[in-house]
UniProtKB/TrEMBL annotation:
Protein name in the entry: GTP cyclohydrolase 1
Pathway(s) served: Cofactor biosynthesis; 7,8-dihydroneopterin triphosphate biosynthesis; 7,8-dihydroneopterin triphosphate from GTP: step 1/1
Family (UniProt): Belongs to the GTP cyclohydrolase I family.
Alphabetized UniProt keyword annotations: GTP-binding, Hydrolase, Metal-binding, Nucleotide-binding, One-carbon metabolism, Zinc
Source organism (scientific name): Aquimarina algicola
SUPFAM superfamilies from the UniProt entry: Tetrahydrobiopterin biosynthesis enzymes-like
Phylogenetic lineage: Bacteria, Pseudomonadati, Bacteroidota, Flavobacteriia, Flavobacteriales
Any one Pfam family match given in the protein's UniProt record, by short name: GTP_cyclohydroI
Gene: folE
Molecular function terms, GO-annotated: GTP binding; GTP cyclohydrolase I activity; zinc ion binding
Domain of life of the source: Bacteria
Classification via HAMAP family: FolE (MF_00223)
Residues binding Zn(2+): C113, H116, C184
Length: 225
């Protein structure tokens, strides 16, 4: 990839070409290697870690692990590092003039803590108030998943989701709440299995107390089907 194309891609990784504090920190040459090249290199790195730990990589059960982990990093759990994987968020005109809040709640979040490379598992709740544009429901789930598929801190992920949807929808009136468990807190270190982390970002009208309250009340609604 040419350097100017790579730089454009780096800008896109944050929030739609605007570098902000919510931008994922990337090296300038982040897009130099193809996925195939990344997998080959990571495979050797994982092999090295396993050998350093004293594991016998000729063992039947272990020998495929370096390749498996490398593929999983590039194609799955860190796939959202590449802007080419950003979902196309199809929008429509709000012909039916729906003027109330729309909430997409209980979106499953599987992400990875960038400090320990351990899983973050939880739920995201996303809301917006249309000012003329409507986005396909599933696109909100897809946008959440795209930003989750990176090494993350929860605060940044929450902001990236809101900033992305603000651009897609052409309005500041977007909010996101994420409640998630960090396995680095639950399964190691302090090993507090009960605790979870709540983060929120409220844009535009969601900064108003009553609008924020309405959103939070919808999240609390028991909608088990
Ligand atoms: N703010 C924030 N912190 C996070 C997130 N994920 C993990 N952390 C924290 O990152 C911190 C890293 O702290 P360090 O002291 O460098 O790491 P550590 O020695 O493994 O810390 P312990 O987890 O306390 O054992 C820990 O307190 C984690 O709980 C996140 O999404 N947001
Ligand atoms: Zn962690």
């Amino acid at each position: 990839m040419k350097i100017d194309k790579a730089l454009k891609a780096i800008e896109a990784i944050g929030d739609n070409h605007v570098a902000t504090s919510a931008t994922t920190p990337l090296r300038e040459d982040a897009f130099k290697l193809s996925d195939k090249e990344k997998i080959a290199l990571i495979k050797e790195d994982v092999k090295h870690i396993m050998e350093t730990l004293g594991l016998d990589l000729t063992d039947d059960s272990l020998k495929g692990t370096p390749q498996r982990v490398a593929k999983m990093f590039v194609n799955e759990i860190f796939s959202g590092l590449h802007p080419e994987r950003k979902p196309d968020a199809s929008t429509f005109e709000n012909h039916y003039k729906y003027g109330e809040m729309l909430v997409e709640k209980n979106i499953t979040v599987y992400s990875t803590c960038e400090h320990h490379l351990l899983p973050i598992v939880g739920r995201a709740h996303v809301a917006y108030i249309s000012n003329g544009t409507v986005v396909g429901l599933s696109k909100m789930n897809r946008i959440v998943d795209y930003y989750a598929k990176r090494p993350q801190v929860q605060e940044r992920m929450t902001m990236q989701i809101v900033q992305d949807l603000q651009v897609v929808l052409g309005t500041k009136d977007v909010a996101c709440v994420i409640d998630a468990k960090h396995l680095c807190v639950n399964s190691r270190g302090i090993r507090d299995i009960e605790s979870s982390t709540v983060t929120s970002e409220f844009g535009g009208k969601f900064k108003e107390e009553s609008v924020r309250r309405e959103f939070l009340d919808y999240i609390k609604l028991d909608t088990t089907f």
